[in-house]
Amino acid sequence: MAGRDPAGEEAVPVVVTDKSGKPAQGRRRPADETRCARCALHARCLPLGLELEALASFDAIIEHPRPLKRGQALMRQDQRFESLYVVRSGSLKQVVEQVGQRDQVTHFHLPGEVVGLDGIAESRCYGSVVALESTFVCELPFHRLDDLAEQVPALRGELYRCMSRELRNDQRMMCLLSGRTADQRLASFMLGLSERFRSRGCSPYCFHLSMSRSDIGSYLGLALETVSRVIARFQEQGLVSVEGRELCIEDHPALVALAEEGAGRHSGA
After folding, report:
1. What gap in Å lies between CA 230 and CA 104, rounded to an integer?
2. Considering 123, 149, 178, which residue would you say is the last residue of a domain?
3. N or C: which end of the chain has fewer CB within 10 A?
4. Considering the entire predicted model, what is its pTM?
């Protein structure tokens, strides 16, 4: 019996392929019945803009959506790189282990985002990626994705754009940590998350923080106590309100003004 995917839809079996990656003999489901076409994140994912036939080919290389429990690792640091992953629901963090130092959180991944791009160059995973909550990911075996991208220029272009965003985010991260106060770093981080939630059709003003304050501190280069102190100050100033891990931006213009006292803004993408 077919299972159900995270969106509550009936899961459709992936098309079986032969060793060359071509569809095996048998009935192939119509392109407009693909999981990708039905997915609510289609407009935020790699197959954005693909024609129906190319979309069906992309859908055929996806491994069945994989569930992860909170705290479960999707990949481990230094393990062999074999696949990229797209977050379908939930969220993850990337953590890099450093000898003689505390582990460093380097990324937060939200639905629609690609995980694992930094493993392509050296064929190994740069850091461990761990679920922050119950999460589903779609696995894309890289050798099959790369072969398909050679045949579908639109997919190749979207891969390039994902890599470009990764480089841009690394540059923004350097700016975020360079000569900026704790208040500016946290304001910038909150605004970046706000923009990412808005782009997914969610409220840009009230959202759930799946990451802990300790994770946020590690990512921003701040101590846990500093993160808690700044958040408390933001609440006193009427910039935000916090209930558990639910955060609401109460004075967006003021938060923007604070963040723009330094360079750019960044959200952990």
Report:
1. 20
2. 178
3. N
4. 0.80
